[in-house]
Structure formats: structure tokens, C-alpha cells
Amino acid sequence: MAETVIPEGAAPQTPQTRQERLDYGRSVIEAVNSEAAQQVLPALEDVSPVLAEQVLIGFAEFYGRPQLSPRDRQLVTLGILTALGGCESQLEVHVNTSLNVGLTPEQIVEALLHSAAYCGFPRALNATFAAKRVFAERGLLPVGGAEK
């Protein structure tokens, strides 16, 4: 799978209007997971439109930075959400995003397995079951190359 390229925009440190930051954040989230953008952002508009804007600003300020590729950012995100626990809905979104930006199911499973050593089996199991739901939805089960 080809590496996802973040749309060109001003560097996060470049002063811009709030609307320009929101527009850039929207272009970044659309590049890595347009489905999440189309579901999550509208779902927030009638309850917390400010939170929806903050999500976009986060994508502009963090995901849009060039120092890590979208693929590498997703590995970090999977590890953090697994360690936090209780983030299975967000894990499902980020497993989808991870697949979109070039991680394979095998690499995702390996990252979640690796997390068991640092954050425990219950959290690694919950994260793996969240990933399994996404893999099932996308027709990616059984995960090939699952080795003992």
C-alpha cells in the first residue's frame, strides 16, 4: 500500500487564522481517514461543536507535522490508546486509520502484542479485540502470518 501523504499546508508553527487551521486540519483528517471525518465531526456538531473544532486543530497541529509519517504516528497512537484502556471506540477508528496509512493487519497485531509487555494483558486483549472487529468489517480475517 502506498504511503499516505499529508496535504501540503503551512507548517504548524506558521501563524494563520483559525479558519485556515480548521481547513488544514480537515484536509489532514480527510487524507488519513475520511470515513472518521464524515462520522465523528458531524456527530459532535449538535452536542459539542467546539470539540469538533479542537479535533480539527489537533489534526492541523499534530498530524500535519512532517517529522513523523502518518504510519509512524498511528503506531504511537495505537500504543497510547492501548495503554490508556477504555478507548476501544477510538482504537477502532485508529485501526482503520492505520490500515489506511499503510500498516498491515500483521503489523497492527504485532504492535498490540508488544503492548502487553508494557501495559498488561487486559488492555492488550481489549485492543486486539477492537482491531479484530475492524479486520472483520474490512474482510481481513484471518490475519495472515499470525505466528506463535
Topology:
Layout (H helix, E strand, L loop, with lengths): L17 H28 L3 H15 L6 H15 L3 H13 L4 H15 L1 H17 L11
Name some characteristics of this structure.
single chain, 148 residues, mainly alpha, 6 helices, 70% helix, globular
What does this molecule look like?
The chain is mainly alpha-helical and 148 residues long. It is 70% helix and 0% strand. It has 6 helices and no strands. It has helices spanning 18-45, 49-63, 70-84, 88-100, 105-119, 121-137. The longest helix has 28 residues, at 18-45. The chain is globular, with a radius of gyration of 16 Å. The two termini are 25 Å apart. The model has no long low-confidence stretch (mean pLDDT 92).
Q: Supply Rg.
A: 16 Å
Low-confidence stretches: none
Largest sheet: number of strands, sense, barrel closure: none
Listing every helix as H and every strand as E from the N terminus to the C terminus, the arrangement reads HHHHHH
- Tell the overall outline: globular
Helix content: 55-70%
| Strand fraction | under 5%
Mean residue pLDDT:
92
Tell me the structural class. mainly alpha
What is the number of beta strands? 0
Count helical runs.
6
Q: Whole-Å distance between the termini? A: 25 Å
Give me a quick take on this structure.
This protein is mainly α and 148 residues long. The chain has 6 helices and no strands.
